[in-house]
Design brief:
The protein is of the alpha+beta class. It has helices at 2-19, 21-25, 57-73, 83-107, 113-122, 124-132; strands at 28-36, 39-47. The protein is 63% helix and 14% strand. The chain has a two-stranded antiparallel ribbon. Strand 1 and strand 2 (39-47) form a beta hairpin. It starts with a helix and ends with a helix.
């Protein structure tokens, strides 16, 4: 399941990379046109050997996770003095975020994490669905 998520993230990253007009000018381009009934379909492919932008990808994933923990769990506002309790809560939040993300990808790709979390909060049987995923 993690591989499918990583593939989707990579696909999104590549799509965003190709949309950058400045970077696109540095890429090789191939265009084709095809007439199909009353429509003309035009396809453009971009090719690059510059993969330096992927070096920051792992850092982005970590930043994204920290952002999600803060937004979804308000982690920055949690003030605990006990370091062990802080660490246990952090691990629990990461496990919950992972389970919810897996459920979202497999069963509800268009639903927001907030919506899925709220639904789980309101319906204990929904939590079971997330855990059984």
């Amino acid at each position: 399941m993690a591989d499918a998520l990583n593939c989707q993230i990579l696909k999104t990253d590549i799509e965003e990379y190709v949309q950058d007009e400045i970077l696109r000018k540095q890429m090789d381009t191939a265009c084709t046109s095809e007439k199909n009934r009353e429509r003309v379909e035009k396809r453009t492919a971009f090719c690059t050997t510059n993969l330096n932008w992927m070096d920051n990808k792992e850092e982005w994933a970590v930043e994204t996770m920290h952002w999600l923990l803060d937004v979804q769990f308000k982690e920055d506002f949690c003030r605990l003095l006990d370091k062990n309790l802080q660490q246990a809560l952090n691990i629990g939040r990461k496990v919950a975020l992972n389970l919810i993300s897996r459920y979202k990808q497999k069963n509800a790709p268009k639903a927001s994490l907030s919506h899925i979390m709220f639904k789980a909060l309101m319906d204990i049987s929904f939590i079971k669905k997330i855990l059984q995923n």
